[in-house]
Amino acid sequence: MMNFTIVLSMLLYCSLILAQDDVNVPETERTSETQSCFPDMCEFLKEFGAIKEKQTVMETRLKDSETRLKDSETRLMDSETRLTDSETRLKESENQILELKSKEKTVVVFSAAAGGSGHIGPFNTDTTVVYKVVKTNIGNAYSQFTGTFAAPVPGIYYFTFFYHAGGSQRVSLTLIKNNESVVTTYDHTTSHDGADNGGNAVFLQLQQGDQVYVRLGANTHVWGDNFITTFSGFLVSQV
To answer: Name one GO cellular component term (predicted).
Structure first.
């Protein structure tokens, strides 16, 4: 547009010059000059108009190309976003598969007996029963030195504990989780009952590191020989 304005201004300027020159030019010369000048000017204007039209067409094509380029960039960005989302979902799926495989491979089972000979207790205070004879300890979560089970993974666990004892003294065994009583088995003293047997069981949801053990109540006892007083547990399912 600016180029067209400049050319138009030049044409007007030239016309003014020619008009001024015509004042002192004879009529015959003026007619001759006009005939020689105006055809050139008309041809120039035609060429300029054609160039301007081509320029307009090129500008239109350029705008169309820019629009198509922007559309292509937008589609490319959308494709990249979808690709990123797909990669994220793929990683999440892989992590879930790995987690499921890890859960399938995690096996925790233990079973132990008090062992020894004769009775365990009575003691003046509550005492943790140490089941020294380990029958099974897959996962090594039970310690035969402390009598404590420590959960290696979070999940649902099942525990059982049984005892055999003489009837002449009281029996009190309590399953403890992190110093809190969970379930108890108990029997009182009888003069006519020579032996007692009992036990209890429970499902517990544990976090990794939670501790579970069996506590013998103060002034009570159980028998430890012949593997008749036991403590067992296993992982049911990880959570």
So the answer is: extracellular region
Cβ 217 vs Cβ 172: under 8 Å: yes
CA distances from 229 to 77, 119, 160, 190 (A): 69, 10, 11, 20
List of residues 6+ apart from 109 with CB closer than 8 A? 136, 137, 138, 139, 233, 234, 235
- Whether residue 188 contacts residue 197, with contact meaning beta carbons closer than 8 Å, is answered with no
Question: DSSP 3-state assignment of 131?
Answer: coil
Residue-wise pLDDT for 100-126, tens only, equals: 776 667 899 999 999 887 888 899 999
CB atoms within 10 A of CB 161: 24
Exposed, middle or buried, 67 (CB in 10 Å: 0-12/13-18/19+)?
A: exposed
What's 139's DSSP letter?
T
Measured over the CA atoms of residue 209, residue 214, residue 219 and residue 224, the dihedral's sign is: negative
Radius of gyration of the chain (CA): 51
Instruction: Pinpoint the alpha helices (H) of the chain.
Output: 2-22, 27-105
CA 215 to CA 233: how far, in whole Å?
Answer: 16
pLDDT tens for residues 139-185?
999 999 999 999 999 999 999 999 998 877 889 999 999 999 999 99
CB 73 within 8 A of CB 194: no
Torsion angle in degrees (nearest 10) through CA of 117, 123, 125, 127: 0
